[in-house]
Amino acid sequence: MRLSKRQLKRIIREEYSRLKRRGLIKETMDDIPIGGFPDFVDNTPPPQDGLQQLKFFVRDIVETAGYETLLRNLEPYDKGAFVDYCDECGCSSDADFIRCALEYAQGMSAREIDGFTDYIAHFGGRY
Fold first, then answer.
1. What is d(CA 111, CA 50) in angstroms, rounded to the nearest whole number?
2. Which residues, including other chains, have CB under 8 Å from residue 116's CB and lie 6 or more apart?
3. What is the pLDDT of residues 66-85, one digit of tens each?
4. Which residues contact 31 (CB under 8 A, 6 or more apart)?
5. How far apart are CA 127 and CA 117, in angstroms?
6. Spans of all domains in the chain
7. 39, 45, 47, 62: which could form a disulfide with 94 (CB 3.0–4.6 Å)?
8. pTM of the model
């Protein structure tokens, strides 16, 4: 697979943003004390809450791809259980889809939410 410079830059930007949202990248030097550099292991901010990250990705991708496209691409995820859940909820708009995705994730563990977010991001064309 060949990538153009533009595609590579876009991929790097998206990955950088994703790591920054998770709290794994710091951009400011404001936290450095006068005596020297802090121990970054102890001062690393906690990662962003999984539901907040899911909400960001779902909202962003639904606005660009539309909820119908996402539902079609999410059919293989968990053997169609999420799509069935959306059908039961009566999703008929982008806002309904976002609400359903967040409600569906309420009973998940942090690892499952992360996997769900990655699946949505992947099939929404984000990486």
1. 9
2. 54, 77, 82, 101, 104, 105, 108
3. 778 777 777 777 888 888 88
4. 38, 43
5. 12
6. 1-48, 49-127
7. 62
8. 0.56
